[in-house]
Write a structure and sequence with these properties.
The complex is a heterodimer of chains A (about 260) and B (about 475). Chain A is an alpha/beta fold and about 260 residues long. Helix content of chain A is about 35%, strand content about 25%. Chain A has one domain (about 5-255): Rossmann fold (3-Layer(aba) Sandwich). In chain A, helix 5 (about 150-165) packs parallel to helix 6 (about 180-195). Chain A is globular, with a radius of gyration of 18 Å. By secondary structure, chain B is of the alpha/beta class. Chain B has a domain at about 20-320. Chain B has helices at about 5-10, 35-45, 50-70, 110-115, 145-150, 160-165, 165-175, 185-190, 435-440, 445-460, 465-480; strands at about 25-30, 90-95, 130-135, 140-145, 155-160, 195-200, 210-215, 225-230, 235-245, 250-255, 260-265, 270-275, 285-300, 305-310, 315-320, 320-325, 330-340, 345-355, 360-370, 375-385, 390-400, 405-415, 420-430. In chain B, helix 3 (about 50-70) packs antiparallel against helix 8, helix 6 crosses helix 7 (about 165-175) and helix 10 (about 445-460) packs antiparallel against helix 11. The interface between A and B is medium-sized, with 31 and 24 residues.
Chain lengths: ~260, ~475
């Protein structure tokens, strides 16, 4: 069943005469992992931001259905409660806010929305330890303030940890692999693989084929100038890595001319 | 900020002040206006010794001089009308006995007033480990746990009682840290102060419980002028906390307090304030003018004075809790959170005066501003020429919660000793859309997100408060941030 359906999505920047997405169509079924690749500035991160409900973008046309429900009608926190999770490309620091407090609030707010009871402090700490272990995160990280003084790699791994904590239906990874050394990359990939289930969908946005060697996608899409212009299996990623994006550009131009 | 956040934050101003009710009790009031007769009236009401009346009269004379020559301390970044000193009352006391010997004599209405404020005066109900002095308008109405403190030799009573029962100590220290010549409001306070708390901790004694005073302005048109004096003898320790509230009034009420702290060698005073006077309504009408002089002296070697304040109330706040570091190796600290919203204005900070050798001071100030509020940090670090090895660290952070509020930092440094090490850091941040969005993406609503971010910002300060009050302080901040939810 379709978890996420994006139909003819056109997006611009509020109050500015800039268009970023020019008719995106995408269907993601539960249990599937799709990768979206594309050069810088093609609109990949904008798509992620719009899915999560970032306000500075304006949807000009099209619709987004999540579990058949109109996602665009919902506030960002409501989307989170429904099970949309975004692993940020640049996670922000929240000085003085402890990871434990932050996650406790977040987990309980999501649980409440799902009709589950709040976790007691003891149960929460136990759950946090288990999830940290699952994605192989140092438990000391939970004693620090959210992202404050974290290295680039720690920030990205912390996003995967939060993903593990919040157990969303749809996880969007916005360039989680960029800037990671090979150890951190495999750690992130292992985390994602452990979290793949039949009930959860993944949308992995990336520049590089590298992460897809560790995470096998069901589908790969190429975004160019705000549109998905190519789709294929995992072999498409390998081809992009070898040949770059020029051939995609040429084929897209030819298709447009035809 | 996005529109919805701006709207949300604007909603804050409309939040109702929680302690805005008034207790209908008969009270004994002085007529409006200020004169030598009023000073005599107050002194007479309180049945004071002659020396104290003389001192008040000298202070009054000095105040008159300042008033005539227009010496208002109006150099701060504040905009308000000068108080009309003839249009307010300088003394109001719940009718009947001005002071009660034991709690059974305290009228029910007064007990209920403090009960409503969350401060039960009956000892069995009181927070364990906290002795309370409750001051309503001009007089102290009840002090709890007197006996238990007495065993240790700790004196904790209303200023009025202390002046009568321990005149030798009061006389020695009164005005020794904040002389009545300090500024106009200190002079006014010295002339008309009505009550306040007095704490004396004898040599080598660690005060066995937190001491706290709750101040409540109840009567209309009345100023509150309390005076607090705390003295620790060598090797003693005390932690003291004051809390303040007032009913909602259309007119501005003046609160001009004086606090003096004296720490002898090897002793320590920890002084915490949770200030929640009525801030005025959403149009900026009414509210308390909180113009206060607070200063401590580390008189002996190795002594320490630490000020912690959470300032959320008052229409106008001007206060600089300061430390004179006279003893060698003495330590002064100032930890402050000032939260202003609506049309509130605050100009607050500290003065650290390094005189002794190897003295150390730390200043951490957090200012949070919302709506149309203005929030300034003003601080002076002064190192004398003999203060070899003096060290100071200052950090001033400001947070803006909207497009129409202001934050300002005025740090002054005067060093006459080349061996001094002075560090200053300052930051201003806007609660960013990025931070809010990050929280929303994790399922947190506007209010929850803002609370988390603001609490995180203030964490260093809140953890300085005594444990019994840290929770209260967090809740107060939370209340300030909510309600508000538009």
């Amino acid at each position: 069943m379709a978890l996420l359906e994006v139909k003819n999505l056109h997006v611009g920047v509020e109050d500015e005469d800039i268009k970023i997405l020019n008719g995106v169509d995408l269907t993601l079924d539960t249990g599937q992992l799709h990768a979206i690749m594309g050069p810088n500035g093609s609109g990949k991160s904008t798509l992620a931001a719009v899915l999560a409900g970032r306000e500075e973008y304006e949807v000009l046309e099209g619709e987004i259905l999540f579990d058949g429900e109109d996602l665009l009608e919902l506030e960002p926190e409501e989307r989170a409660e429904k099970g949309v999770f975004l692993a940020f490309q640049y996670p922000v620091e929240l000085p003085g806010v402890s990871m434990t407090n932050f996650l406790k609030e977040a987990v309980n707010s999501v649980r409440e929305a799902r009709g589950q009871e709040e976790l007691s402090s003891a149960d929460f700490l136990q759950y946090m330890r288990e999830r940290a272990e699952l994605v192989n995160i140092d438990a000391d990280l939970t004693k620090r303030s959210v992202n404050e003084g974290f290295s680039g790699g720690e920030k990205k791994r912390n996003e995967i940890f939060q993903l593990a904590m919040l157990e969303p239906r749809l996880a969007i990874l916005d360039e989680t692999d960029s800037g990671l050394d090979i150890d951190a990359l495999t750690n992130v990939a292992e985390g994602v693989n452990k979290l793949r289930t039949d009930e959860r969908g993944f949308l992995v946005i990336t520049h590089y084929e590298r992460i897809l060697r560790y995470i096998t996608p069901d589908r790969v899409h190429v975004m160019l100038d705000g549109k998905l212009v190519q789709s294929g299996g995992k072999e498409l990623a390998t081809k992009l890595e070898e040949k770059g994006y020029d051939w995609v550009r040429e084929e897209a131009a030819a298709a447009a001319a035809a | 900020m996005s529109t919805s956040e701006t709207e949300y934050l604007k909603g804050k101003a409309s939040e109702e002040y929680e302690h805005g009710w008034y207790t209908d009790i008969e009270s004994d009031k002085a007529p409006k206006g200020l004169s030598e007769d009023i000073v005599r009236f107050i002194s007479h009401k309180k049945d004071e010794p002659e020396w104290l009346l003389d001192w008040r009269l000298k202070a009054y004379e000095y105040f008159e001089q300042l008033l005539e020559s227009g010496h208002y301390p109006d150099w701060a970044h504040l905009d308000y009308e000068r108080p009309d000193f003839q249009n307010m009352r300088y003394y109001a006391a719940p009718k009947g006995k001005a002071d009660y010997d034991n709690l059974d004599e305290v009228p029910d209405e007064i007990l209920e007033t403090f009960e409503r404020l969350g401060i039960p005066l009956e000892e069995q109900k009181a927070l364990t480990g906290v002795a309370v002095d409750a001051v309503m308008d001009s007089v102290s109405v009840a002090t709890t746990f007197k006996e238990k403190l007495k065993e240790k030799g700790v004196i904790f009573k209303s200023f009025g009682e202390a002046a009568k029962e321990h005149p030798e100590i009061v006389r020695e220290y009164l005005g020794s840290v904040v002389p009545y010549t300090d500024n106009m409001y200190a002079a006014l306070n010295s002339a008309v102060f009505s009550d306040g708390s007095f704490v004396y901790v004898p040599e080598g004694v660690t005060c066995p419980m937190e001491l706290s005073t709750y101040f409540r302005i109840n009567e209309q048109g009345t100023g509150q002028f309390e005076r607090t004096l705390i003295v620790t003898e060598p090797g003693a320790y005390v932690s003291y906390l004051e809390g303040c509230t007032a009913p909602m009034r259309k007119e501005n009420q003046l609160h001009a307090a004086v606090v003096e702290l004296v720490a002898h060698e090897d002793s320590e005073i920890k002084y915490s304030t949770i200030q929640n006077w009525y801030p005025g309504d959403e149009d900026g009408e009414g509210g308390v003018y909180n113009l206060v002089t607070k200063r401590g002296i580390c008189k002996g070697d190795n002594s320490k004075i630490s000020w912690t304040q959470l300032e959320t109330g008052s229409a106008v706040t001007q206060k600089y809790p300061s430390v004179i570091l006279a003893g060698d190796n003495s330590v002064g600290e100032f930890y402050s959170v000032a939260f202003t919203k609506g049309h509130q204005q605050a100009d607050t900070g500290t003065k650290m005066q390094h005189i002794g050798k190897n003295t150390k001071s730390t200043i951490i100030s957090k200012g949070i501003s919302a709506d149309y509020a203005d929030n300034s940090y003003r601080g002076l670090v002064k190192v004398g020429k003999n203060a070899d090895g003096a060290r100071n660290f200052s950090q001033c952070d400001s947070m803006l919660l909207g497009p129409d509020c202001g934050a300002h930092t005025y740090p002054y440094i005067e060093s006459a000793n080349p061996s001094a090490q002075i560090e200053h850091e300052a930051t201003t941040s806007k609660v960013g859309e990025d931070q809010m969005f990050y929280c929303h993406q994790r399922g947190l609503g506007e209010e929850e997100a803002l609370k988390l971010i603001v609490n995180g910002f203030c964490k260093e300060i809140l953890q300085e408060l005594p444990m019994e009050f840290a929770v209260e302080a967090k809740e107060l901040l939370a209340i300030e941030l909510e309600g508000s939810v538009g």
